[in-house]
């Protein structure tokens, strides 16, 4: 009987040892599981918050590019549907003829316009389509004018509303919407539309003015950076090319000069303004 009791005691002790060992291991497993779950949970919570922040943030640069090219396409389609099929009055017939044959027009001439007109005339499928293709030079020039007008407006409105900071969603919508309305309104103005569908130098001259002003704004943004003067080199190049179209590009000189002046000089007086204006 005593032998059986001893055997039973040993067996009970072993069972108790196994039970406590299993219970201890179960506690460790549960503890490790909870720790691992908290780590995974915190990771997913962090990722969710990050994605939520990204969803709430407004990518101004992306939408500025998309809406800019959208206004370009609206203008391009509009002018393509209403372009002159042949020639118009005034100098259009002369510009079409001199462009197609690379001849010299009336003084002071427009060599850049005529060379680009010759390039567009190469795409004419027949002789009676030459005038139409040269007219398309003004179509594309005017569409690009609307594009750079949109981008210039977004730069100015952003600087006026938020300065150098990134705009909030509401401010970005207001900036982009205002620029789009203004650009599309200019697209359908009578004088600009009239010049956009015929072979005259005024459409390309307006495009060069819009391009120069946008380049001036980009130069003003990066004027204090190591490679900021690259925009000034582009401005000089475009000004030189503009003399081969029309001298209207000279109208951007004062605007670009004042952009430089107000960027470099914080203390503005009448004396400094007069001196810098003369320079």
Can you give a write-up of this model?
This protein has 279 residues and is mainly α. 76% of the residues lie in helices and 0% in strands. The protein contains eleven helices and no strands. It has helices spanning 2-56, 60-81, 92-101, 111-121, 130-161, 169-187, 190-196, 201-221, 230-242, 252-264, 270-278. Helix 2 (60-81) packs parallel to helix 6 (169-187), helix 3 (92-101) crosses helix 5 and helix 8 (201-221) runs parallel beside helix 10 (252-264). The termini are far apart. The relative contact order is 0.09. Mean pLDDT is 82; it is low at 1-11, 18-24 and 50-56.
Task: Offer a concise description of the structure.
The protein has 279 residues and is mostly helical. It has helices at 2-56, 60-81, 92-101, 111-121, 130-161, 169-187, 190-196, 201-221, 230-242, 252-264, 270-278. Helix 3 (92-101) crosses helix 5 (130-161), helix 4 (111-121) packs across helix 5 (130-161) and helix 5 runs antiparallel to helix 6.
């Amino acid at each position: 009987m005593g032998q059986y009791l001893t055997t039973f005691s040993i067996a009970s002790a072993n069972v108790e040892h196994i039970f406590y060992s299993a219970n201890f291991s179960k506690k460790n497993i549960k503890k490790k599981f909870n720790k691992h779950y908290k780590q995974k949970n915190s990771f997913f919570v962090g990722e969710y918050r990050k994605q939520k922040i990204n969803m709430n943030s407004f990518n101004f640069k992306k939408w500025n590019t998309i809406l800019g090219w959208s206004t370009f396409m609206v203008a391009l389609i509009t002018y393509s549907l209403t372009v002159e099929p042949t020639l118009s009055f005034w100098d259009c017939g002369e510009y079409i003829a001199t462009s197609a044959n690379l001849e010299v027009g009336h003084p002071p001439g427009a060599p850049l316009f005529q060379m680009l007109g010759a390039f567009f005339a190469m795409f004419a499928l027949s002789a009676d389509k030459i005038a139409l293709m040269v007219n398309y030079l003004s179509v594309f020039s005017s569409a690009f004018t609307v594009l750079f007008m949109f981008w210039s407006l977004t730069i100015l409105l952003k600087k006026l509303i938020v300065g150098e900071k990134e705009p909030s969603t509401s401010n970005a919508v207001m900036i982009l919407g205002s620029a789009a309305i203004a650009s599309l309104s200019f697209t359908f103005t009578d004088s600009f539309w009239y010049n956009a569908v015929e072979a005259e130098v005024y459409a390309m001259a307006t495009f060069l003015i819009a391009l120069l002003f946008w380049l001036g704004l980009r130069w003003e943004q990066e004027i204090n950076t190591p490679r900021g003067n690259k925009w000034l080199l582009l401005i000089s190049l475009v000004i030189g090319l503009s003399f081969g179209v029309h001298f209207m590009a000279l109208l951007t000189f004062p605007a670009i000069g004042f952009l430089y002046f107000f960027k470099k000089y914080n203390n503005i007086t009448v004396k400094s303004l007069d001196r810098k204006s003369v320079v």
